[in-house]
Amino acid sequence: MRFSDLPVSERKKLAAGLRNVSNRLHKFFGNIAPLPVDVFRGDSWQMIISDPSVAFTVALFFRATLKYLLGSGKFDTRVAIGVGTVDFIPGKHVSEGDGDAFRFSGDALESMDKHVRMHFVIPDKEMERSINVVAHLVDAIAIRWTDKQALAVSGALQGLKQDEIAKLWRPPITQQNVAKHLFKAGWRQIESANQYINYNLNRLYYIITT
Q: How much is the pTM?
């Protein structure tokens, strides 16, 4: 369903959810996410990451957090990631910035298959292909997350231990239940994929900046 077709109450819920995710991103990632997520046209958003080597981690965190806050059965988001230089950002409005990163993210959104919700465009096309193979496989898992699985993954992406993740529930749940949610969410495979993508993006970032 398109954003404009949603009832007013649901549109307000989505807008509030995006702001909530933005606050949580800044709290956890700090200077890596230096500016608030820029929300426009109700359901569109853009953000800037100062360290592209954790871009996939941030994308997964954004998606998992939005899913559990709003209910995974109703809401999800597409994430188009462009890795490149930033020429300028006027004030705090990320959507008004310019540079290769902005153009690449636009290209990523346009080239994204309708059945895919996470896609990269980066300068190294060979690396781009291999990263997208992994990102699309993770996406196939993330599409099926329940809100409980998404909450468990969001906690794991913050580096929390299972007993710490258990305390994110209200009321708290057991560590054993957290382990079950992470297993069903495919966390072990997602963690390996995340490390693989971040490692390659770190190599690319080093090449771009040296």
A: 0.87
